[in-house]
Amino acid sequence: MRELYDISDIANAVHLAVAPVFLLTGIGGLLGVMTNRLGRVIDRARHLEVRLEQAAPEDVPGITEHLGILSRRAKFINLAITCCTMTALLICTVIAVLFSGSFVSFDITIPVALLFIMAMLLLVIGLLWFLREVFLATANLRIGPR
Q1: Confidence class of residue 138 from pLDDT cuts 50, 70 and 90?
Q2: Residue 29 and which of 23, 85, 114, 131 are 20 to 30 A apart at CA?
Q3: Residue 99: is it exposed, middle or buried by C-beta count within 10 angstroms (0-12/13-18/19+)?
Q4: Distance separating alpha carbons of residues 119 and 135, to the nearest angstrom
Q5: Structure confidence at residue 2 (pLDDT)
Q6: Residue whose C-alpha is closest to residue 73's, from 146, 140, 3, 1
Q7: Euclidean distance between CA atoms 119 and 125, whole angstroms
Q8: Using H for helix, E for strand and C for coil, what is the string for 51-106?
Q9: What are the residue ranges spanned by the domains of the chain?
Q10: Which of 142, 121, 146 is closest to 55 using CA atoms?
């Protein structure tokens, strides 16, 4: 009978630890979007750097300005990716603490709550950096002939 009790303890621990996994999946999706945007910014900057080498003198200021905007965008996306990655690490820690807390006689409520609050704060900060990058990108959007 003790063996069945141990299995139910493990099942309960897994059940508690699964809920944050869904959050981790969502953060993974966000990180995918952000890294794709960063990749596009880098590709565009490389393209403009090649154009800058061959540009006429009157085109140099415009290309240089655009490269500066791309640099700012890359910094904002990098900050967003950093915050969201730290969020994912904290959520992984929450999962580990929830799972291991079932097997040790230690009150895990305060550590889990603090880790989760820190994770949510970092997620909000990361999303704000991402939003800032989107605003910068759309503010400098050019459609049509240049």
Answers
A1: very high
A2: 114
A3: middle
A4: 24
A5: 45
A6: 140
A7: 10
A8: HHHHCCCCCHHHHHHHHHHHHHHHHHHHHHHHHHHHHHHHHHHHHHHHHHHCCCCC
A9: 2-139
A10: 146
Kindly tell me the sign of the dihedral angle through the C-alpha atoms of 89, 114, 132, 24.
Answer: positive
Q: How many other β-carbons are positioned within 10 Å of the β-carbon of residue 98?
A: 22
Count of C-beta atoms within a 10 Å radius of residue 110:
8
Q: Which stretch of DSSP H or E encloses residue 36?
A: helix 2-54
Q: What is the pLDDT of residues 73-105, one digit of tens each?
A: 999 999 999 999 999 999 999 988 888 877 777
Contact 101, 75 (CB under 8 A): no
Average pLDDT, the chain: 89
CA distances, 19 to each of 25, 49, 59, 98 (Å): 10, 46, 54, 11
- The encoded tokens of residue 142 equal 């050019």
Hey, CA dihedral for 99, 103, 108, 109, is it positive or negative?
A: positive
Q: Name the amino acid, one letter, at 71.
A: S
What residues have CB less than 8 Å from 98, skipping those under 6 apart?
13, 16, 17, 20, 108, 112
Reported as a pLDDT band with limits 50, 70 and 90, residue 146 is low
